[in-house]
Design brief:
Elements: E1 24-34, E2 51-58, E3 64-70, H1 77-85, E4 107-115, E5 118-126, E6 150-151, E7 156-157
Antiparallel strand pairs: 1-2, 1-4, 2-3, 4-5, 6-7
Length: about 160
């Protein structure tokens, strides 16, 4: 059912908080991933290649953007990089079952570029693991009083 409404000329045109990220590397968290349209149809290109749409959120600013992963067996590089970046292990030559659930909540680093006024993630890598580089101080035992001397012949404490 269609509903028609005439909006006033001075209606706000706020894009709903949409922000363009500056080009560079960002840490993203996967907020959702889907492989179907709202009507339940599988996401496919015009040539029939299935794909996933991944909603990614910059963990610092909260800005979200979509990242598209094509499930093309003839060009699997982008999928392989994304699997690795999100911590999904696979062996070379292995048949992998891709589900939308395997990406939920995962974090990764993504290189963002701006093309035609829109953000695009062009490269993905695993999130850097923070390594504690704090060097602990060397252990130096506390000097205590020397024990009283022992007479070797009697094997007992000498009273003086």
């Amino acid at each position: 059912m269609a509903f028609e409404i005439t909006l006033p000329d001075n209606a706000p045109r706020d894009p709903g908080g949409y922000q363009i990220l500056e080009p560079g590397w960002y840490t993203f968290a996967v907020r959702s991933c889907y492989d179907k349209t709202q009507a339940g149809q599988p996401l496919e290109t015009q040539h029939g290649t299935p794909y996933l749409k991944v909603l990614c959120e910059d963990v610092k600013s909260g800005t979200t953007l979509h990242h598209v992963i094509f499930l093309d067996e003839e060009k699997p590089q982008r999928l392989m990089y994304f699997l690795t970046a999100t911590g999904n292990e696979f062996a070379p030559g292995e048949t992998v079952t891709i589900t939308t659930h395997m990406f939920h909540g995962k974090r990764f680093r993504g290189k963002v570029e701006v093309e035609n006024g829109r953000n695009r993630i062009t490269l993905t890598t695993p999130e850097e693991k923070k390594i504690d580089t704090k060097i602990e101080e060397e252990f130096t035992p506390i000097e205590t009083e020397k024990p009283p001397p022992i007479d070797p012949e009697l094997n007992e404490d000498v009273p003086f």
